[in-house]
Amino acid sequence: MSDFLRIQDVSVAYGDIQALWDVSLNVEEGEIVALIGPNGAGKTTLMRAVAGLNPLRSGSIYLADKALHTLRAYQIAEQGVILVPEGRRLFGGLTVLDNLELGAYPKRARQVRADTLKLVYELFPLLADRRLQRANTMSGGQQQMLAIGRALMGVPRLLMLDEPSLGLGPLVVESIFETIKHMNEQGVTVFLVEQNARQALELANRAYILEQGSIAGTGVAQDLLNDDRVQQAYLGICPAPEA
Amino acid sequence: MSAFMQTLVWGIFAGAIYGIAAMGLALVFGVLKILNIAHGELVMLGGYVGFWAFTALGWDPFLALIVVIPAIFILGIILDRIVYRNLNRLIGEDKIKNSLLVSFGLGLVLTNLAQWLFTGDERSVQPSYAGQGLNVYGVLMPYTRLATLGIVLVVTVALHFFLRKTYPGKAILATAEDYESAELAGININRVYMLTFALSAALAAIAGQFVTFTYALAPSIGMYWTLKAMIVIVLAGTGSVLGALPAGILLGVVEAMSGAYLSQTYKEVVGLVIFLLVLILRPQGLFVRK
Fold first, then answer.
1. B273 Cα to chain A: minimum distance (Å)
2. Are B173 and A91 in contact (CB under 8 A)?
3. CATH fold of A1-80+159-164+192-243, please?
4. Chain A residues whose beta carbon lies within 8 Å of the beta carbon of residue B173
5. Quick one: which H or E segment has residue A178?
6. How confident is the model at residue B203 (pLDDT cuts 50, 70, 90)?
7. The overall pTM is greater than 0.90
8. Angle at B118 between CA B115 and CA B120, to 5 degrees
């Protein structure tokens, strides 16, 4: 298989503070790839860079053979690269249905909006029941479902999720991960950032470890789960997710 | 009693114009996160387009809205492209501070441009039916004022439907809530900013057209209207676009009442006292649902 998402020597800085140093990684079509690492390693920065929210200092990002790093964020979404941002970032004052419809804003997605909406409602029946409720009146787990639902409305070719388990109870996390797996089986390539390394590695095919802005390791997820160093650094000190 | 009713009605008529002038300012504040001090100058320029349509072409002042609105809408697009877009790279406090400087400067430029083009003379528009109106139990309601109120209500309802029910409208609301999330959803926020600014300019222009036959029109009126609009958006609650109409009417009525029952001189002061009271007692504004 050929590389689908190819991140090459990417550096990103906030002013004088460099957050990413020559990061290279690739995601193949149909894979689930996890990016794990400690707080402040630059995981979110990398996700935002791919989505077009952080400008690159150097390096390049390609989806198939299309350069993403020269595009603006909305154009990257039009290419089918959709990020579910950290902390969900819903349009809280708008209804569930408005949020979903806005997810289908790109022309490509808008044409199949009705069909996608049906799919999302099948995946999350709760969103159908609450479609006229304001998004910020829902619980954290429901909001995360809506955030994923909104991303799916954009008909992603590459779905990126930044900390989808953040602040959620274990049962909800379980069902969110189920959904990600299900979406992947439907053909969506997934690139995932997680602090909950164990759960991420159990879900993913492959993983990269990001430490202090650089790739510190990579491998098949199953091998990393059994790797001594990874176990010590990311699994031993990683308690079960808080309720 | 009928004197009281008459004052109330005048207040509502005046407040409708405050409301529509403030709606545009609130829209730009809520979406672009900038305070456009030059908003009143857009009111003024809208008034001049209407004035010349009436004076040079003999158009009815209400009919003239069909040129006033697009003219200032296009001016809004131009101003967004050459002036305001440069502010969008800034965020937070930097953005709001710089927007004050930039729009204050732009206001001066537009005022002086109008002075140069149209002279400083006070102008007004008097259609043939200006003196006529309804007399409801001794309360006078001139047709011009009734039509003004009617148009303001129609525009408010139309704006509500545009924002709540159409894709571009929802994109505006989404961008106001979280511009990064909006971009991630595939919304070109520069386009949203441009449309929002142009809409705001068009709303200002409608207010300006009403000014030509209810107040005096001169190049220097801009700051007066910016200040009125600012008072109204604080009353309504910043971010509440449609709340600007009831808040504007409230300000109009309070001013009219204090003009009639206290003193004409203190009319403006009473408006400002209300403004301060709201800031102290209900800083989120009167018409914000929490």
1. 31
2. yes
3. Rossmann fold (3.40.50)
4. 91, 93-94, 98
5. helix A170-185
6. very high
7. yes
8. 50
Give the confidence band of A66 by pLDDT, cuts at 50, 70, 90: very high
ipTM summary value: 0.92
Domain borders along chain B are 2-281
Q: Is the pLDDT of residue A235 over 50?
A: yes
Q: Is B180 on the interface with A (CB under 8 A)?
A: yes
Task: Give the CATH fold of the B2-281 domain.
Answer: ABC transporter involved in vitamin B12 uptake, BtuC (1.10.3470)
Q: Alpha helices, DSSP H only, in chain B?
A: 2-32, 39-55, 65-82, 92-118, 143-165, 167-177, 179-184, 189-214, 222-236, 244-261, 267-281
B133-139: long-range pairs with CB below 8 Å, 24+: B137/B2, B137/B5, B138/B2, B138/B5, B138/B6, B139/B2, B139/B5, B139/B6, B139/B9
- Taking one residue from A and the other from B, the number of pairs with CB-CB distance under 8 angstroms is 68
Contact check, Cβ <8 Å, A74/B167: no
Structure confidence at residue A232 (pLDDT):
82
pLDDT tens digit string along B213-257?
999 999 999 999 999 999 999 999 877 899 999 999 999 999 999
